[in-house]
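Quick one: structure for this chain?
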Amino acid sequence: MAAIDSLMQTMNASSQTATVKKAELGSEDRFLKLLVAQMKNQDPLSPLDNAQVTSQMAQISTVSGIDKLNATLQTLTGSMTSNQPLQAAGLVGRMVMVPGSTLTLAGGVAAGGFSLEQPVEQLTVTVRDPLGAPMHTVNLGAQKPGMQTFAWDGVADNGQSAVPGSYSFEVTALAASKKITVTPLALGRVDAVRPGADGVTLTLGGFGEARMADVRQIF
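Got it. Here's what it folds into:
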């Protein structure tokens, strides 16, 4: 197996080198053909000066370097994409914060969060039952920009304890008496990961799926 892995690595490296050389030669060949054609068809009474020729030769070197950089970036991007499922597998069993308004009550506590792009003078969180009716409202006061978290002990405003399960929440923020956009964040446990053409998808216990790219925080 070690010999096969070594052979595959050698073949991949050779393929990548060939791609870079092909791109480099292609660009240089095009520029040289244009330069030769320009020199052949130049006006004898007004030939190209040395500065102009030197400038065009410098362009050949610049484009060649850009082609090498593009080929290298494509290789790095492919490597990062192939490693995503392996990295995501390490999240199984962990808690992550993703955009969403689901609140899961378990063990007498539920947690969620929100993200603000600017400071606000007042922020209110309203917890709603499965039918959408308000159960609990709390004013968290002034908040700074960035991501914040909150917790609910499962006690409704009428004093009764809510049963374990899934609820929803709504976040309202005001600044200078104007309503400010808030991004609600849901907390869920990663139960599984699924690679796909659009990236890795996480299966979260309690409220479905989310893209790995949408994860805001890992606990």
